[in-house]
Design brief:
Distance between the termini: 46 Å
Structural class: alpha+beta
Helix content: 40-55%
Radius of gyration: 16 Å
Largest sheet: 4 strands, antiparallel
Strand content: 15-25%
């Protein structure tokens, strides 16, 4: 039945992990694992991490990242994005002992691997 097919696909996808540096990211479960530690991401941090993966070999403009995270915002406040980036970096350091490295210059972000 359709339900059986859907459940099998969902089960398969829930086990898929994407490697970034030494972190395993599970997009379906919205989790990060680094060594023995695991972390469930909040929605905003999950969206940011997903965009980090998309731009891992290139750069991303902060205003584009902002639009992905908050598409309905009329008044763009880049400091709001900067705060969430800093919070994600701190969260990964405290919870996973992982250093999320990025450089920001002229409104452009580059995420660096360790």
């Amino acid at each position: 039945t359709f339900l059986n097919i859907f459940n099998k696909i969902n089960s398969f996808l829930s086990d898929v992990e994407i490697q970034f540096d030494n972190i395993a990211y599970n997009p379906m479960k919205e989790t990060l694992s680094f060594g023995p530690r695991s972390l469930k991401l909040r929605n905003t941090h999950n969206l940011i991490f997903r965009e980090i993966l998309k731009s891992r070999d290139t750069t991303i403009k902060k205003n584009i990242l902002y639009d992905v995270i908050w598409p309905k915002d009329v008044d763009v406040q880049i400091n709001k994005l900067d705060t969430h980036l800093t919070n994600l970096k701190t969260l990964l350091k405290v919870q996973l002992n992982y250093n999320l490295n990025f450089k920001s210059s002229g409104g452009i972000l580059r995420f660096l691997t360790n």
